[in-house]
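Sulfatase N-terminal domain-containing protein (Daldinia eschscholtzii), 447 aa
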Amino acid sequence: MSKDPERPNVVLILADNLGWGELGCYGGGILRGAATPRIDAFAKEGLLLHNFNVESDCVPTRSALMTGRHPIRTGCLQSVPAGFPQGLTRWEKTLPEVLKANGYATAHFGKWHLGDIPGRYPSDRGFDEWYGIPRTTDESQFTSAVGFVADVVEMPYIMKGKAGTPSENVRIYDLEQRRLIDETLVEYSKDWLSRQVNEVKNPFFLYHPLVHLHFPTLPHLNFAGKTKHGDFSDSMAEMDFRVGQLLDHIDSLGIADNTVVIFASDNGPEFRPPYKGTAGPWSGTYHTAMEGSLRVPFIIRWPGHVPPGTTSNEIVHVTDIFSTIASITKSPLPNDRPFDGIDQTPLFNNPVEAKSPREGFLFYIKNELRAIKWRDWKLHYVWEPQVNKSSGKLESPYLFNTTRDPKEETDILAYNTWVAQPMIKLRTEFEKSLRNDPAPPDPLKSL
């Protein structure tokens, strides 16, 4: 545990498919059937971002978070079934590897989704220990599916592992465990945090990727029926409670003053009934290039550094979190590869006056450039406002101003062709960088 303000502890809590409009502090809460008092109170203790942006899917976002590089560089383009090549290549340098080289203790309790074979588990990629699921929580439905045949698929397991030893199966991940897993993950994180404080003198990095609210969105039985608005709202109430448990434990250990705590989501809201979420004023869900896919919750608390009760609408991207945590912890980055993340520490320290050094980014789904976001503008090259409702590549792209038209309903490119200049410049510079840093080949295409 670190008491050195130059090397603070870091706790990163990542919700799964939590839309921008779900939490009370983002305009949801009781309007969505479940109050979120713990996260709402946490937001008042630090900085809440209105314009934090992620990738289109679980794997791309998590790879960007762990490497500070766009998935179009790393080849982590999509979620794929068990038994197929997936995850980060050994060449990629992960955030826990960077922190570990700087003397940090590291742990992962939750959903990984960046590799499911020896050499690619969390304990192989910089984490001292881990417990959770290697892939997606979709798989918890396998054993309950009508007609399920066990001998033709790799069974889903909850796993655990420690650095230097093989990871191992703990138990089958089924619908019963789906209801229990977030409770279990909190217990693992609390135990690990206690051990760092009582036994270890090093600063630490805890990565706690929740399973909620990913479908099937099923609450712990202690929360079933709690909101009287169904499983989704009950699960949101549980998620809020679990985050509160982690925050309370950090406070009880007396380490809050020198611990950076970040709460964010990996993707926009669920689109599958009956677990459909909401992005509030924005249109779309994950798997699209709409603002509802890009923008998700993000809150950071860092006492003495990040002013409490503040908000910002400056653009921040998920790759920036990698670079910012490296900067906060004084952890040097390798100089043999380009990083897409930008250090946002100045913005986080002074959100009222500071501006984000990021003006925009390119948004891909798999290998296809779908949109460019620049300042308050979004240029769509492919129009897919809802999942599987694509009209294909546009001969004339659609342009929207996301402040004046948050639902992205009225194309105004014909009246604002000037915007194409800075956007095409952004695209040209990024694509030039990609040519000098080609991604590994898509493993699915070589099968």
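The chain is about 25% helix and 20% strand. The longest strand covers residues 393-401. ok done for today
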